[in-house]
Description:
Blueprint: H1 3-7, E1 19-22, E2 30-33, H2 36-44, E3 54-60, E4 63-70, H3 80-83
Antiparallel strand pairs: 1-2, 1-3, 3-4
Amino acid sequence: MTMSEQCEMFRRALRSSPYATIVPDRRPAVKYHPGLGRAKSAVAYRDWGGARGGEIYERTADGWALLYTVESGTASEDLPWRTEA
Length: 85
């Protein structure tokens, strides 16, 4: 099952905040963050085995916009914000 499929059931819980993350194996699965750096840490941090995995959203005038999807186990050098040009 892809990360997007795992996060699907949690998307309706998103509320007003600058950034939000959905990490299916964390409780609560949906958390809100005051900055993008903290949101990135929430999906990327794990002591072993690569990234924790999840999705990062940014609050927009029209609702929520998906910024990044990180699959569980992604190596830190392969995180999407590190590979952007």
